[in-house]
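Example record

Each entry pairs one chain with its bound ligand, adenosine monophosphate.
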Amino acid sequence: MVRAGTEPVYVGVGSNQANRNENIALALLMLEADSRIRVKVCSQAYLTEPVSEIPQPTFVNAVVELETSCEPASLLGKLKEIETLLGRTAGRRWGPRAIDLDILFFGKRIVREPELRVPHPRLEERHFVLYPLTEIAPAFIHPVSGLTVTELKRRLPRIGCPPRCVRWGRVPRWSTVSSATP
Ligand code: AMP
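Structure tokens for the complex follow.
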């Protein structure tokens, strides 16, 4: 069971294959089906140009806030299980994918393991992370840099040529506020 008041965990969700919105909604339902996890808040969906040398369809991205009694490694295991169930196959790293789930922040924790790095090491470069994250957690502080999510988003345009990232609407069946009663 999830204890109330656990540290907030932020997970990035993306899809650029088949029914992208449906893939995201299904991934969230699968997270909620695990008694150790509660999806507290879901951002709106964003349409994002792929950041890749490989030509591929536009992504739909969102960020969710979870409450969980899992440790970071178990949560990563759950995310990988959902990616497999939704048909993500091991392919080229930056290639198209039915679903991609990344742990962005796990409260204030810092994890430096070969299989898991938290905060996510590339979140500062990613429009598709920082746009939806600013919507749901603007004041959250990056535990390493000490910058808020809003400050990280402001710094984005200085890095390279910014890809287009536009708000697209709600993820089906997910409001932007808590999905479950407290
Ligand atoms: P990707 O293809 O970019 O989704 O990378 C997936 C791999 O990154 C997985 O094998 C994970 O073990 C590893 N990884 C490292 N840190 C994280 C993180 N914070 N969230 C998700 N996957 C991670």
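The two ends are 13 Å apart (CA to CA).
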